[in-house]
From TrEMBL:
GO terms for biological process: DNA topological change. This is Unannotated protein. GO terms for molecular function: ATP binding; DNA binding; DNA topoisomerase type II (double strand cut, ATP-hydrolyzing) activity. InterPro entries: GyrA/parC_rep, Gyrase/topoIV_suA_C, Type_II_DNA_Topoisomerases. PANTHER family: DNA GYRASE SUBUNIT A, CHLOROPLASTIC_MITOCHONDRIAL (PTHR43493:SF5), DNA GYRASE/TOPOISOMERASE SUBUNIT A (PTHR43493). One of its GO terms (cellular component) is DNA topoisomerase type II (double strand cut, ATP-hydrolyzing) complex.
Amino acid sequence: MFAITSEGRALRLQGIDIDEVTGRSRGADVAKKFSANKGEVILTIVSPDSESLVLVTQSGLAKRLSSESVAELRHGKPVMALKGNDKLAVAFSAPEGVDIVLVTSDAQVLRTAVNNISVQGAAAGGVSGMNAKTGAVVGGGPIFGDAVVATFTDAGTAKATPADDIPSYGRGSAGVRLSRLGEGQRIAGVVVAEIDSIQAVMGSDDNPKVADPNPVSFPLAPSKRDLVSTSADRPVLALGAARW
């Protein structure tokens, strides 16, 4: 399997090298297991037989790696040529024919067909995927079924917007506003999935800035696009999609 990182690298690990989880163990640190650099963020983990891989940088450059290219990845080698201080922000697998969404830190969202994103080799730097304007791309994913675009902010507020509320545009567009943010707030994370599968890490009761180790179902009902990101009973510190 491969971890795709914010530095645009593929880090390889054999399944047999992953410790078996027993009892109440929460597993090993994924960055250490894949030998990531200090500060290097693992964006996704894929298998060699994965579908094409969508890669998008913070500045909005995007490309796809074919499934054949994914299978040929080598440990530590680049999956995308990054320019200057740009970082890889989004990495996910997506089949032909689906729509994807990309979200920026200033709450813009672009929905576009994955087929609009060019297939390029690992050494290529991508094409204009999204016009990030004054923000930076912070997340995204493919749209399946009754997916919502769930976001949380650096202030602990959150929102889930039905993907059907988001109009489709061509590659390179700035998209539309996903949600209204409070003054100084930024989108900190994004999950694209059906609402029932989204888990939230909440602030603990005694210290809202410290994560409660027990995730909960997404705490807010979906609302229309361009409405305000709101507070739950506790701050939302992270979001993720359940794997089983």
